[in-house]
Design a protein that fits this description.
Layout lengths: L5 H9 L38 E6 L4 E4 L1 H7 L3 H4 L14 H12 L6 E6 L5 E12 L5 E10 L2 H21 L1 H16 L3 H43 L1
Helix pairs in contact: 1-6, 5-6
Protein name: PAS/PAC sensor protein (Modular protein)
Pfam families: PAS_3
Length: 238
Amino acid sequence: MYHFKGNMINIILSHYLSYDFCYQTINTNTMNHIPPTQQTVNEEVQWNKEKTIVSKTDAFGTILYVNDVFCEASEYSKVELIGEPHNIIRHPDMPKVAFKVLWKALKDGKNFHAIVKNRTKSGKYYWVITDFIIDRNEKNEITGYTGRRKAVPNSVIEKIEPIYKTLVEIEKLKGEKASELYFNAYLNEEIGKSYDEFVLDLFEEEVAKQKKRNAIAKRENIFKKGLNWFFVTEYEMS
């Protein structure tokens, strides 16, 4: 059992009040990109959550390809997206430390799972879980990343959103390094897992719950059909 050591985290943070590690994905070849909207609307965009959002970027995070579902969810056209940095859909509610952890794993050649809140062209939002295929050339050098994203159940969002809010508040007041230290301490002391493991466990729990709900619904349906057969039979015999 892991216990949250708040005092220890506060002591760590106090040493880094002025340190702000800026982690951004920038491609100097696309400096004339479309600036992402600064407007946010507290409204979820409507998109087909049964489908998978797919995008492909180069090693610097520049968008090379998006599927139609990506356009539907983001409200951008393919013409608007191709050649842009992927952070065009970054939502201000997302802590920068989450992207730092993500990009470090990808640059090390490791797949990574992350829960991300994205911002649409009009400022609305949508939540996704993402994983990656790492693209390599014949020399085994990383040439880009193919991201696959699915909708996130509300039960998972309810668990991850408060953590992100805390990290964003720390970043605003005390800098990204402080946020990173808090995040690492939180995962170690409170969760006892890496971020990737934490995300996967959240979804495994949700899948298990959904299977249980489906099994209960199936039993209830069988029971109702049985009752219906019983009453119909009794009626016909009377």
